[in-house]
Amino acid sequence: xxxxxxxxxxxxxxxxxxxxxxxxxxRGSGLATRPPLHGLRYVIAAVxxxxxxxxxxxxxxxxxDAIVITRFGNPVxxxxxxxxxxxxxxxxxxxxxxxxxxxxxxSGLQDxxxxxxxxxxxxxxxxxxxxxxxxxxxxxxxxxxxxxxxxAEQLRSFVASALEVTASGxxxxxxxxxxxxxxxxxxxxxxxxxxxxxxxxxxxxIAIRQVGLERLTLPPETLDAAVARMRADRLAxxxxxxxxxxxxxxxxxxxADRDSRIAVADAEAQAAAIKAKAEVRAxxxxxxxxxxxxxxxxxxxxxxxxxxxxxxxxxxxxxxxAAPFRVLVDGPDDPGGAPPAPAKAxx
Length: 347
Known about the structure:
Blueprint: E1 6-9, E2 12-15, H1 37-57, E3 58-61, E4 65-71, E5 74-79, E6 83-86, E7 93-99, E8 103-106, E9 110-113, E10 119-129, H2 134-144, H3 148-167, H4 172-175, H5 185-204, E11 207-217, H6 220-292, H7 294-309, H8 326-330
C-alpha cells in the first residue's frame, strides 16, 4: 500500500486527487458482456425433467419375465419378448412383472386306490411354467393374481385328484413288480399328464412341462397283501417251472431209453450177422479140414469135446471103447484100413 503525498492549503491537509477510472468500453470482459446465468439453469432443468420422464416411460423386460402394462389398473398390453418397451408415466400406466421361469411342485403323499382294490401312497412332482403367450399370462393374473405360491397350492389339489383317477386304471403289479418288463410307470406318467395339462392350462394359464411319480409306498395292510400275492405268484411260477423240468426230464429219459433200445437192437443185429458170417466161415473151415484128413479131424474134435466136458473135478465112468474115449485105446484110425506096423526091436 503506497502513501499519497499531502498538499497543504492553509492549516488543514488535503489528499491529492485520484486518477480517473478507465473507461468500461475499452475492456473486452466486463460485467455488462457476461450472458445471463438464469437461462442456462432453465435449460439444464428442462433436460433433467425430460430425462426423468423418459426414464419413467422406459420398461426393461428380462429374459425370464413378462411385463403386463396396466392403465388405471386394467391390463392393456402384455410384453413377453426380452428388451425395452415404452409406456405412459405413472399413475396413468403401471407395470407388473410375471415370472416365466420353470418351477416344480410336489403333491405330497396321497392315499389312492388301484384297480385291484389295494390302497397305495403316491407322491408325484410337476414341472410347470407360465408360457410366453399373452392370453396365458392374462389368465394367470386373473386366476392367482400373479402369486406363484397360490398357483402351486392349487396345482397340488389338481395333482391329488389326477392321481386318484389315474391310479384307478392300473393294478399294483403294473407299478411294482420284480420283472422290469411288466412295470408300466411310463404309461402311468403319460396318463397323469393327460389328466392335468388341459385343465390346468385352461383354468390357470399354466403349461405342464413334465409329470412323474416321485415316491410310491404301501400301507401295512396293503404291504402284507402285496407280499402274499407276490409269494403266491412266485410259488405258481416255481411250480410251473418244476413241472416243466419234470416233463423235460421224463422226455429226456424216454428218448434215452428209446435210443438205447434202438442202439442195442442194432448192435445185436450186427452181432448176429457177424456171428452168422463167422459160423458160415467156420463151417467152411471145418469142412475143408475134414476133407483133408477125416481121421485127424475126428480125433481133434473128440479131444475138443473132452476138453469142454471134462474138467479137473469131473469123474466119468464110461466105456473105453465108446466115443470119444475110444481114441485113447485104439489110437488114431488108419485112413487106408491097414493095421499099424509092428514096432521094430532095438538092436
